[in-house]
Amino acid sequence: MADDEFFLQSVRRGTAWAHPEYNHTVHAEVGGLLPGREYYYRFRTGSWISETGRTRTAPAATAAAAPSLTFAAVSCQAYHDGYFTAHRHLAEDDVDVVFHLGDYLYEYAVNSAGGARQYTDRQVPELFNREARTLEEYRLRYALYKSDPDLRAVHAAHPFVVTWDDHETENNCADAVDEEGNPPEEFPLRRAAAYRAYWENQPLRGAQLPQGPDLRLFRRLQWGTLAQFDVLDTRQYRSDQAYGDMPHVPGPESDDPARTITGAAQERWLIDGWRASYALWNVLPQQVRFSQHKLDPTPEALVSMDTWDGYRASRERVLAGAKSAGIQNLMVLAGDAHVGYAFDIKEVFDEPASRTLGTEFVTTSVSSGRDGAERPLTWDTYTKANPHLKFYDGRRGYVRVELGHEAARADFRTVSAVTTPGAPIATAASFVTEAGRPGLEPA
Ligand code: FE
Ligand code: CA
């Protein structure tokens, strides 16, 4: 590691074994760095020297005068749905850290043309043309994704904080229940393989090495006293989706207070952490949409059973915890939807005049769902059914958020296409929310 990208002044160096049982990955945990600093790093094995990566350390947790923080949120990068053009632009954007909110990869088959990428100059090997289920298959999947030059560029440019959603393991999985209804003793074997490959290939520490099918991913990060980030895992401990996983009107099955999307231990950890928080912004990077999202404007409207709408008692407990902890400025981040949304989080979602408790930014996909449209066909319906929905855009891209001492600003960044490489990026919309006054205003 060095202070400068030319490695004139080396600050730390060390040797790590790339053990075959971890598929020759290494997890270098570098101590003794200064807070609030930019560093460069690279690896050498034999005569081979890696590309150079840039990272940065957070300000000290007690730093009262922490500088403002700019982060990006990304999710859902299906290789077979298109190019990671949004990552190429994000690599050139000026952010301190990137939060990856899940669906880093998809278990689905990738054909020899790379799906929507329609390669003519190369072939994706045949072994990717089936769903990943084994440790070897999940490992190879990371290898395929990390061969993408845009993904490599964004990792080299910025530090990443990762959490997963379902597709790193299997579509719509919940705790020990898989999508296909296999016996519950079978899925943990697959989950253990997926979690092991995830740990090997992501910036996680040795202490997070999974124990069989268990990996503790939820964790807390601070940016001085400006922001606290409670990174959640809403997949590993959740109750199985109600009503067979399809959109449904909330009812006794989904609203059963015994059901949970976080698990009891993580829920306690979150609320206890909020009680101890002295941060100006309390940010919740997590997987799935938090705010109510009715699919039509009728009283019997369907909602997704895979998001917090399918776990309303869980959501009520978390919001009650935020209120009783008296935290300042709640901001929820989500992915998974493959479209961009901005929401005011309401005390009572069905009462537009009720108090606004915070804001939610749902980042669109990097590529999943292919090109997408600026105004999806459901735009009028969703906007009418959800008055607290402030923005809805169906294109690919990412969200960039700047947290300041007076206000936060969010920019929804979109690319016009991902099925062809090299599309330009633009800001589709920008919002501000003032510290101490929850609610979004157009910037
Ligand atoms: Fe996804
Ligand atoms: Ca997902």
In CATH, the architecture of the largest domain is 4-Layer Sandwich
Report, as a whole number of angstroms, the end-to-end distance: 39 Å
| Count of discrete domains | 2
Q: What structural category characterises the helix and strand content?
A: alpha/beta
Strand content: 15-25%
Separate helix tally = 8
The fourth-level CATH homologous superfamily of the largest domain is Alkaline phosphatase D (PhoD)
List bound small molecules.
fe (iii) ion, calcium ion
Oligomerization category of the chains in this entry: single chain
Q: How do the strands line up in the largest sheet? A: 7-6-5-15-16-17-18
In the CATH hierarchy, what is the class of the largest domain?
Answer: Alpha Beta
The best one-word shape is: globular
CATH topology (level 3) name of the largest domain: Purple Acid Phosphatase, chain A, domain 2
Unreliable runs:
none
Helix-strand topology string? EEEEEHEHHEHEEHHEHEEEHEEEEE
Largest sheet: 7 strands, mixed
Number of strands: 18
Estimated radius of gyration: 21 Å
Helical proportion, percent range: 10-25%
Q: What report would you give on this structure?
A:
By secondary structure, this protein is an alpha/beta fold. It folds into 2 domains: 57 residues, no CATH class; 383 residues, Purple Acid Phosphatase, chain A, domain 2, CATH 3.60.21.70. The chain has 8 helices and 18 strands. It has a 7-stranded mixed sheet with strand order 7-6-5-15-16-17-18, covered by helices on one side. Strands 8-9-10-11-13-12-14 form a 7-stranded mixed sheet. The protein starts with 37 loop residues before the first strand and ends with a strand. Calcium ion binds next to loops.
